Amino acid sequence: MSNSVASNQRRHLLKALTAASAMAAFGRPSWANMAVGKADLIVTGGTFHTMDVSTSLAEAMAIRGNRIMAMGSIDDIQNLAGPNTRRIDARGLTVTPGFIDAHSHPLLANEAISVDVNVRQISKVQALLKEQAQRTPKGQWVLAHMYDDTKFDEGRPLTLQDIDAVVPSQPVMVRHRGGHTAVVNSKAFAMAQIANDTPDPEGGRFFREDGQLTGKVAELAMDVFDSVGEWPAVDRKTKQQGASLMTKRMAASGLTSTTDAAGNLEGWIAYMDALDAGELHTRVAFMPRGNTDVYAAMKTAGMRSGFGNAMLRVGAVKYAADGSASERTMRMSTPFQGTDDYGILTMSQAQIDAAVDEAVANDFRIGIHANGDVTIDMVLNAYERVLADWKGPNPRFRIEHCSLVNPDLLKRIKTTGTVPTPFYTYAYYHGNKWVDYGPDKMRNMFAHRSFIDAGIMVAPASDFTPGPYEPMMALQSMITRKDSQGRVWGENQRISAAEAMQVCTMNGAYASFEEHDKGSLTPGKLADFVLLGQDPLSTDPTAIKDIPIVATYLDGQPVFEA
Which residue ranges does the record assign to the Amidohydrolase domain (predicted)? Predict the structure, then answer.
């Protein structure tokens, strides 16, 4: 990297750190009277990107208990060492705050009862389905997950006929990794009494070609199968193991905090069980899904957003008002390329208004899934109505995904103090899907540049399983806007490496009202940090996704070591 480019990156970093420091000052705990005694752990020798302008020149870090004790020069920090102080020599490494994912679905891929079909040939999907059917008791649903219709070498999606050829006598559901569509077989349609001429349900669709069902079902059309046939069950211990496994994998990518953005009661119990067993490897913000038993139970018990501790905390209640970006069902004011398809709404304005009213009445923050510009407008209508006479601090209502924006929507998002959570790995990972949107729409999708320029605290979001959760891929995707084939999607939305770092740390903490506890390497904050094999600010931007994670620390303790 040239000196001029490196200097420019440093200027971007200083700008990002200044903004982060000003925001972090709100609610920062007093640490002066707590930082006594000797350090339990000292880290020296690395390049520190603290994301706090007041500690941006730090050469070393001291940790006591589960908090950062001090940041400073090597000599100053060495003075805090005692006979039992552990040490990390980070020479040649880069030290950053732990990365944060503000929107994911860690438990969505239930591998105990479903087979992973994230493969690149339809024939391999068929082989995996045949094996899964042999493992599944006769009469039960055969389940698969992580299907991606645009990744096959055959250049076409999976169909009903493909599944029928290998599993004709049991119902099959192959769920798209995006969670908004699936492909089922003829047996499933027959059991649900769905025929070629069956009307689409409101908020859903049975896809057809030449009047014949293709097997693809979308949005609320998937719900008609819930009460049909016998579904495999998973016991409590298995669910706990799923929570442990997924948070362990996330920690290995450099994440120290994640968000379950549509949790159910079984998921809440799984996280609780994993925490009690000492097997929760990242912090979890749990967003209960609206209109579910867990949300009803929390309201009845008087629980609300913010309830919990630093490891497991209740976040905003989550609703979904339209379709998917990656599965091309989001509701827009203009159609998908070459079609008259405008996408699918899954909530009316009245339903959105009622959801917001109920959340506010029960002291819950709210996050509403809205990908398309039409849906974002509807959500903002509801937020503006509630906030018109609002007393008190900004409640930081959220728009989950907030994919397709325009200048008017940006202005309203800023005015309402709304937190958008656009996909951070999608530009890179899902390139083949953006052909259906076209270059004009992509100039206004996943609009990190526009959000930052408007002064909006845009949050980091993988939406895993729909998108990969790896922070290094996220940085590369936001910086380059290049997909895996080198195609650029929305070049105008590129942001700097320093800005991308702030999105994935400080902005992530802000999204859950936890900026006083995490998001930067600041004395008094939780000792969550990552050791990287290379510096994202000086690495070739097209190679950032390959930066190795050397270690991830949570509360000053290693949760992953390479």
Answer: 88-560
pLDDT at 490 over 70: yes
**pLDDT for residue 374:** 98
CA angle 403/472/28 to nearest 5° reads 80
User: Residue 406 contacts by C-beta under 8 Å, 6 or more apart in sequence?
Assistant: 373, 444
Alpha-carbon gap, residue 267 to 288, rounded angstroms:
9
Are 119 and 162 in contact by the 8 Å Cβ rule? The answer is no
Q: Detail the DSSP E strand segments found in 355-453.
A: 366-370, 398-401, 419-421
For the beta sheet containing 312-314, the strands, ordered from the edge strand earlier in sequence to the opposite edge, are 99-100, 255-263, 283-288, 312-314
Mean pLDDT of 62-75: 97
Question: Mean pLDDT over all residues of the chain?
Answer: 92
Task: Please determine, for residue 30, whether its predicted confidence score (pLDDT) is greater than 80.
Answer: no
d(CA 182, CA 218) in angstroms, rounded, equals 7
Extract the tokens encoding 558: 């290693």
- Alpha-carbon distance 317 to 387, whole Å? 17
Q: Which of 237, 249, 315 is nearest to 273 (CA)?
A: 237
**pLDDT tens, residue by residue, 500-531:** 999 999 999 999 999 999 999 999 999 999 99
Structural contact between residues 544 and 475, judged by C-beta atoms closer than 8 angstroms: yes
Secondary structure (3-state) at 66 = coil
Q: Which run of H or of E encompasses 414?
A: helix 407-416
Question: What 3-state DSSP class applies to 544?
Answer: helix
What HEC string does 242-268 produce? HHHHHHHHHHHCCEEEEEEEEECHHHH
Cβ pair 401, 451 in contact under 8 A: no
Where are any strands of DSSP class E within 326-458?
Answer: 366-370, 398-401, 419-421
The number of CA neighbours under 13 Å toward the Cβ of 422 is 30
The verdict on pTM exceeding 0.90 is no
304 C-beta neighbours (distance < 10 Å), count: 15
